[in-house]
């Protein structure tokens, strides 16, 4: 990707950056810093998380004006996003500069006048996404110098692409969509947001872990890590409510009442299909990873409105031959057992182990033959209406994707439908797209 005179060239398409500015909270914020916990710190060497929302509409200036005004208003409640990463006097990492000395949120205005919303809504994920979201390929560690939230408003032929890059050290998926929904509320004219964020991170984990991070990694001119080569194909598979009921019936195999949830049944369905598509040998391990929300699992439980990271990766696995030779209930049972075992004691043990021997991972350290599920159909992503209608599509940007990464979103048309966004090696994606056992109507 090259930038010349404000124009970003990518695979024959052109996105012209028109302006860059900063947005600050329009109201006084008393807090000037925010601690980071053991739930936050492991994400330092991941990339910024990216989300893209596509909206129909032609009055770009009016839409962007409303979005910027609402952003300034909502940031008083989500003030950590206006700061930067920093260290205290003992070298412990924190978020700082998020009060009256706030560093601000970066806002980029751009134009892609020959690109339509429909073109970007295709089930085969567009390569354009990497230039519709800022900070592609930027590590969270760069939050010492870069804003913790950057937003790009791109004018399309018939609408608007809203690309958001969030520093993952600051927040997880639940907090991301809490912020997005609250921003939309303000833009629709609400005087106040309906659910205030809960900011007491010390209640989640009152620890002070000092990390020895080389200065070269956090320098403003630190080189970006190399991108995956070649880029992985990405595809959205859409499953109706009826298809999900069919998966659930197959996993429960006549059990009454059902033993396995819709998520466990869908997870097993995807896990088995990707394992088939990879042509693994019977003895090869196949691993399923869930990034589980721990808000209700920790003791005492934390409110859903907790703003920060409260997720942990939960793992299970089986030999490929065993997973595929058994009925769907086998895989669903493994998922249920892994999720059920991840209680407050297991969470605490994982945290204490990391604190004793901190280790920073890259997103690509997931291992071989992994299916890893991020996001959740519970996130009401299609309710993010800023006053000009629901999004036409919601997608994940190109960051933090590896072979086997899966993002789940509710289907736009409701009815219990789910969109499954998968990144997969080319040979396996080709097989998955033709697998009648996977493509349930």
From TrEMBL:
Gene Ontology molecular function terms on file: transferase activity
Keywords: Transferase
Alphabetized Pfam families for the sequence: Transferase
Keyword Transferase: yes
Protein name: BAHD acyltransferase DCR
Annotated source species: Aristolochia fimbriata (White veined hardy Dutchman's pipe vine)
């Amino acid at each position: 990707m090259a930038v010349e005179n404000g124009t970003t060239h990518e695979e024959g398409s052109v996105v012209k950056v028109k302006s860059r500015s900063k947005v600050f909270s329009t109201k006084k914020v008393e807090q000037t810093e925010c601690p980071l916990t053991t739930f936050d710190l492991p994400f330092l060497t991941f990339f910024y998380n990216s989300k893209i929302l596509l909206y129909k509409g032609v009055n770009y200036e009016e839409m962007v004006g409303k979005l910027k005004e609402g952003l300034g208003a909502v940031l008083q409640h989500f003030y950590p996003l206006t700061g930067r990463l920093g260290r205290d006097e003992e070298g412990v990492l924190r978020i700082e500069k998020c009060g009256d000395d706030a560093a601000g949120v970066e806002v980029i205005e751009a134009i892609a006048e020959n690109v339509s919303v429909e073109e970007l809504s295709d089930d085969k994920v567009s390569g354009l996404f990497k230039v519709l979201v800022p900070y592609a390929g930027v590590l969270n560690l760069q939050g010492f110098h870069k804003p913790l939230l950057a937003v790009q408003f791109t004018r399309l032929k018939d609408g608007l692409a809203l690309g958001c890059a969030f520093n993952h050290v600051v927040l997880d998926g639940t907090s991301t969509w809490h912020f997005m929904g609250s921003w939309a509320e303000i833009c629709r004219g609400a005087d106040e947001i309906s659910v205030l964020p809960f900011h007491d991170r010390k209640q989640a984990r009152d620890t002070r872990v000092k990390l020895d991070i080389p200065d070269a990694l956090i320098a403003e001119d630190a080189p970006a890590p190399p991108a995956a080569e070649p880029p992985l194909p990405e595809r959205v598979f859409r499953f109706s409510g009826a298809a999900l009921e069919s998966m659930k019936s197959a996993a429960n195999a006549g059990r009454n009442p059902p033993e396995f949830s819709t998520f466990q049944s869908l997870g097993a369905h995807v896990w088995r299909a990707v394992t088939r598509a990879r042509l693994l040998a019977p003895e090869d391990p196949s691993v399923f990873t869930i990034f589980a929300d721990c808000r209700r699992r920790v003791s005492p439980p934390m409110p859903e409105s907790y703003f920060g990271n409260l997720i942990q990766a939960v793992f299970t696995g089986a030999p490929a031959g065993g997973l595929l030779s058994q009925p769907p209930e086998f895989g669903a049972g493994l998922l249920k057992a892994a999720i059920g075992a991840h209680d407050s004691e297991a969470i605490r043990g994982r945290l204490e182990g990391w604190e004793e021997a901190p280790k920073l991972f890259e997103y690509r350290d997931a291992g071989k033959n992994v299916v890893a599920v991020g996001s959740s159909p519970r996130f009401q992503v299609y309710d993010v209406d800023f006053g000009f209608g629901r999004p036409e599509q919601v997608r994940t940007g190109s960051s933090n994707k590896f072979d086997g990464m899966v993002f789940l979103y509710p289907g736009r048309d409701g009815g219990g439908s789910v969109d499954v966004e998968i990144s997969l090696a080319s040979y396996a994606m080709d097989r998955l797209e033709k697998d009648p056992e996977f493509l349930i109507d």
